[in-house]
Structures are given as structure tokens and as C-alpha cells.
Amino acid sequence: MLKNILPRGRSRSLNRTHKIAIAGVGTLGAAAVAFTAVPASGQTTTTSEAAPTAKVAYSTKQIQDVHAGVTGQLAGASQKVAAIEAKQEAAAKKATAEKKAAAKKAVSQREAKETVSRSAARTEVKKAAPKSYPNNLDGWIREARAIMKKHGIPGSYEGIHRNIMRESSGNPMAINDWDINAINGIPSKGLLQVIPPTFEAYHVAGTSKNIYDPVANIVAACNYAADKYGTMDNVDSAY
Question: For the Transglycosylase SLT domain, which residue ranges apply (predicted)?
């Protein structure tokens, strides 16, 4: 086509102006070709089709839901941590309480053992040192009654005291040298005026064999009265 554009008879060498003109024509031709490729509908057809761009939907609700979900997860995790800490604290308190209870129990057991030991020691002291009674009428009667209790011999303090005052006025060395027993050579002797044969027959083991011993005299006389009258309390006269 360039041959037809150049006039005949002219040099076929192209100067710079001709080259520019030819470039412009080429450009216009290319544009014309491109224009003729446009369909009648007015839409441009391209050789490569770009993939449709997906529309992104933004939603405030979705963001809120995500936030709520995360918040719920964090709350659940916090609750689990709190529950674990509560269990650990409860276990620690329980362990402390158990230690205190064990220590208290140990102290109680130790105190109980010490109490038993002291009680046993007191018992040993009592066994080693028998109870003492005053050396008077009151002491003699109380000591005699303690011995009588061990042997199951009845007799009240009042009944014994009443008969002693009638028989000897409380004199452990008293002796009757005028009644029938004295005439028979076996006078009544001691606090409760017991004749020797009766004292020997009703003497209680563990007491003195001396008829003038106040405690031995009382116990033997009460033993005799229990056998004959049921108790010294039932005796109101010479027996």
C-alpha cells in the first residue's frame, strides 16, 4: 500500500518527514482496524475475559456475632479458671482444716494420756499411802465403817456412835468388872464392851487382834450385831 501513496517519478528514499507521516498513517490504520472490530451492539469485545469480581458483603451483625462468640469463649475460659482456682482454694482450706483437726486430736490424745498417767500416779500414791483418820472417836468410827464396807458389814455412823456412848462413853480402855460376864471371868471390854470370846469369834481379818484397839473392837462388835440383830442400828441396850 505504501507504493500507491508515493508519487511516481520521485525518489523512493524516505526522509525524516516521510517517515513520520508513514508512522501516523500506520497508527490511523491500526485505529481503524480496531474500530471495525467493535460489534454493532456497541459493546467492546476483548480477546481475554477477566473473572468477575466477587462482591464482599459487610454486615454489622456478623461482626457482633463474632464478638459475642469470642466474648462467650473468654467468659467460659474465665469461669473454668475461676472454678479451678475455687477447687484449689477449697482443697487448700480442707487440708489446713484437716491439719488443724489432726493437731487438735493429737493434743487431746496427749492430754488424755497425761490425765490417765496422773490418775494412775495418784492411785499408786493412794495405794502406797493409805487414808489416815484422826485418832479420836470420830476417826475410829469412820475407819471402822470403811473396813465394814469392804466386808459387807452393815452399820450407820449414828447407830455405832449411839451404842458406843451408852456402853463406854467413848473410852477405848473401858472394862466392866461388875456384870455377870465379869463374875464369870470374861468381863466386857473396849468401846462397845465386847467379851473376849465374842471378839475372837467375830474378829475381822486385817484389823488388830487387841480387844482394846478401838477400830478392831468396833468392827468385831458390828459384825456380831449384824449376825444377831441384822445391824448395830437395831441395838438399843446391852447385847
Answer: 164-234
